[in-house]
Amino acid sequence: MTTADPVRRRVSARLRILLWLLLVMAVALGAVATATRSVLLRDVDHRINGLLVQEATEFENFVEQGIDPRNGARFTDPRELLRLFLVRQYADPDEELLGLVENPGTHPSNMVQQREALKFEPLAEDRTALIEVFESPQATGTVHRPQGDIRWAKVEVGAGTGHPDTAFVVAIHPAAEQEKAESIFTMLLAISGVALLMTTGIGWAVAGRILQPVRLVRTTAAQLTEQDLTRRIPVQGRDDIAALAETFNAMLDRLERAFAAQREFADDAGHELRTPITIVRGHLELMGDDPAEREETVRIVMEELDRMSRIVEDLLLLAKAVRPDFVTPEPVQLGELTADVFVKARALGDRSWQLAEAVDAEIRLDPQRITQAMVQLAQNAVQHTLPGQRVAIGSRSREDGIELYVADSGPGVTAQDAEVIFERFRRGTAARGTRATGAGLGLAIVKAIAVGHGGQVELRTTEGQGATFVLVLPREEATL
Predict the structure, then answer these.
(1) Please, what is the average pLDDT of the chain?
(2) Of 38, 91, 204, 433, which has the fewest Cβ atoms less than 10 A away?
(3) pTM attached to this predicted model
């Protein structure tokens, strides 16, 4: 058996839905038809019982109240009683009214009154069944015959002197009424079959229309590759299928960002680590036996290794920036956080450090990430200012959120640099300060932290001279 066999035997969701729909409808329609048949047969049984009771009661009343027209007195001859009663009766279809008189040999003779010829063999002509009814001790019963069952009721008439025993029997053949119920049942089954056929066509079309976005999801997933994650599913309507398409598109967005971050990380690592690796290899290849030269080579190699370590850490941090757990907000006193950042920044260099302002409010943010971003901005200010120059750190409230900023009094940022300064591996020109160091990832990390909080980082001009870097957090991140 090959691995392709399960695929060939796979049943589509469209077919499964249709089969389940047909099964449910078949069970429901079958149950309705069966219940209808049962009700009809029960009605036939009730009607027959009513007719038997009615005919037997009428005869009993006639026995008690009947007058012999020949003498105006009560009947003394049971046969004459039966004859007169049967003459006055009009039997219903499939009904027999019989007067039975016992003859020698226990074979009753009979007088029959019936409306029309029966479709089945009459009880009056079936001597075996007739004797069974006549001799039965029961007042009602059923005769089971291959030609068809007979429901009957019997009223015995007491024998007088010199008169044989007699009995009035009403017999009904239920087969015709039962056949009508069965024909209705068959008709309902036929109608159910037509309904199932119509349901098959309609269900197939509707299921196909409903599952079209699902097939599109499958097709899109099959066409996705690591090089092409741009395909999306059109969202139509507001049902569960539309929600599935939206969820799938959101998953594709996350995958695209993840793959982009992975490719960017690989490209950045290869681009930035190539230089220090080349430097390390070159110095190791040229290292001689002179102790001073070896010591200098070891120093340079260690510096380059430290730089590579910092680059890798920064790249890993930027790669984590696309993860939902990159920031972990918690309630923080903004004033205390600003003061802590100021204390840590003062150790970065000999500058005129100032705590400009600190807003007294409790906000929700990730204190470690915000501290990391603010210290990075302070380090950036130190690199582009001279000893003794002013560097201010502060936080303030605004209508739509809060701001945390670092303002320096250095040469500022040129318009050309302002457009690219927050991109990876982009450094400012020489006019920005004394000497540019690092890999050019610091401001990119600051931007990633701001975006992770739902905010942004802005570059503004310091009043007088210099540059001000501002972390702007939206108001939903703060409770002021």
Answers:
(1) 79
(2) 38
(3) 0.48
Length of the chain: 480
**Bridge partner residues of 171 (DSSP):** 96, 152
Question: What whole-number distance in Å separates Cα of residue 287 and Cα of residue 293?
Answer: 7
As given in the structure block, the two tokens for residue 451 are 């975006």
Give the Cα separation of 34 and 127 in Å (integer). 37
Calpha distance 325→330 (Å, rounded): 13
Question: 469 to each of 13, 314, 460, 477, how far by Cα in Å?
Answer: 56, 20, 6, 19
- Which tokens belong to 248? 């799938």
d(CA 93, CA 47): 13
CA distance 319 to 264: 8
Token digits for 314? Answer: 């920064």
Q: Of the ranges 95-99, 158-162, 163-167, 324-328, which one carries the lowest mean pLDDT score?
A: 158-162
- φ and ψ at 247, to 5 degrees? -65, -40
- Mark out the alpha helices in 157-239 (DSSP H runs): 175-223
Amino acid at 239: D
Nearby residues of 190 by Cβ (< 8 Å), 6 or more positions away: none
